[in-house]
Design brief:
Keywords: Membrane, Transmembrane, Transmembrane helix. This protein is 78% helix and 0% strand. By secondary structure, it is mainly alpha-helical.
Amino acid sequence: MREVEKLIFVYELTNLIKSKNIIFFPIMYTGLFLGAIGIFGAHGPFSFWFPLIYFFAAFGISGGLSRQITVSASAIYYLSSYSKTKPYVLISIYLLVYIILVLFIFVADFALVSALYLVTSHSVVIGSALLLLLSAFLTSLFVNSLGMSIGLATARFNSSNIINALPFIPLILYMISLLLPANLQQYNPLTATFVMMGSSLTTEIIPTNKILLLALITMVTALTLMAINILLTRKLGDVNLYDLFK
């Protein structure tokens, strides 16, 4: 990375690490509160509850990325226009920062919910650690690519109402995607990563060819979103920051 790119990376990552909301909501709320509901309320298996908790946290982070990209549109425009920083490098930096964050949430929530299950004498099974890590990474890659696309697509509207609604849009899109017919669900990248993670936490691992199909669908979708993000970044124009908060 060039000096300006390193500065952006460190600045964004440091701000996220210092944010109390990052610790409280994704870890304490989704991990502790929803994990307790899964154990004492619904009595759901770990292979269902943990992927569900992780998805809630990942979508929360993705929505925050959407808002951050929209608010930072002016800075992204100036950096890509005047600092010789390529648009794809800028969006890759943002994506990398938020992938690191979501994977940190994954590790923290997994440790917390596993501890809750073990303390209450519930079983925690890891059928495939490699599949678990792969599904966690692909989930992070996809949801953050999606969040970035939403942020870039709405940046030109300069509306505070839209900005305030951005954190909820990725989760809404996921809920809508669940309405797809059953024969199309296997091609839904969000369903794909959920199935992969759930399977990794049982002794009944899905066939290798299906794992490859699900991983390929998610990866291709994420790469397509990244290509769209590059195009949207190049379409950014000058933004009056005061207009964002009228």
